[in-house]
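Take one protein record:
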Amino acid sequence: MTTTTDIDVRQQAADRLAVLRHEQQVGESRLHDLEREEAVLRQTVLRISGAIQVLEELLAEPDRLGG
């Protein structure tokens, strides 16, 4: 025989499961967004590193800059 307490416990478990599934979905979505953001940031840092390297090479050769 199923008691009211059993039904309450099952309902609480089902409610918690729904909350956890939602939190998982939100977390996975946020993680995906962060991975995209990381890729963009890595590209930006790579471009900056390249620009630094070019400028350092130019400054290392004063004749190229008329110095």
User: Anything to note?
Assistant: The radius of gyration is 29 Å. The chain is about 85% helix and 0% strand. The chain has a mean pLDDT of 93.
